[in-house]
Each structure stands twice: as structure tokens, then as C-alpha cells.
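Section 3.1: Structural characterization of target chains.
Under the original work plan, the team committed to producing a structural model for every single-chain target entering the pipeline before any wet-lab resources were allocated. The record below documents one such target. The sequence was received from the expression subgroup and is listed exactly as submitted; it comprises 162 residues.
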Amino acid sequence: MTGSSTSAGATVRHRSAFSRELRDEIEINAPADRVWHALTDTADYSWNPFIHRVEGTLAVKEKLRVEIEPPDGRAMTFKPTVLEVEPNSKLRWIGRFLVRGFLDGEHTFELQALSGDRTRFIQSERFSGILVGLVAGTLDKTERGFAAMNAALKSKVENETG
């Protein structure tokens, strides 16, 4: 299946036995620098219903400790490596379960500046590996987590003063 819509803003971009892409996007009525600040202020993720904690330095090649809890799922902690940091534009990391090729997830947060001090915020992840088919239920919950986080980020940034 490619490019099929699943819910408001969420799209499964690609799905096969060994790969799956998730994506959710939302427009936020604030400039990209304010969205970036909220996203990268990892000391205060109390607003975030999906990613509860990010520990470490948001810099290329740095290891993070990330705790997520998908809706109707259980909390999981993983240790991805940061691949890309472009302030006000993109943050990308990759995590692996056990060894490369079992279950790899490349997570991207992308900010696109729009006219009128608005920002399109896109959260996506490309999963690959031999375990992808076995974790389909967890990936469905993860997709819902993207939507919940994006909506919470929109609410946080739009309701901030300044």
C-alpha cells in the first residue's frame, strides 16, 4: 500500500513485509523558530503525550535516550543516534532494535515555514527490518502517537505568549 490516508493528517506512505513509513503533519499558527524552540526544549516535555522524555544533546552523532508511550500502548525506551540537526528546519535520528536489520526506525521532525508566520510541522518515521510485520499493531499505535503529539505541539505553541 502506498500513499493511503489513515486519519486527519496521517498517511501511511509505504508498507511492505519489511518496511513501513508513517507520517503526520499539521499547520501551526506560529513561526518556525517558536515551533523549533518547543520541540527542542527537551527539559520540558510535559506537554507531549507521545514522547515523554528526551535525554542527551541534540547534535549529529550524539546518542539520545528517548521514552515514548503510544496511545493504548506501553512505554518504551530506546537510544537513537542523531543524524541531522538543522535549526528551525529539521531534526532526524535513527534507532535500532538489537542489531541493524531487525527493526530500524529513522524518525524525522521537519518544519516548513509558510506565509503569515505559520509553520507546517511534519513528523515521520521509516521503519525497516525483518521484524516490521510482527510489530504492525505497535506501529498503528505509534501513528496515533504522532497525531497526538503534533496536536499538542500546535496547542502549546499557539497558546504561548510572546
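Confidence is low (pLDDT under 50) at residues 1-8.
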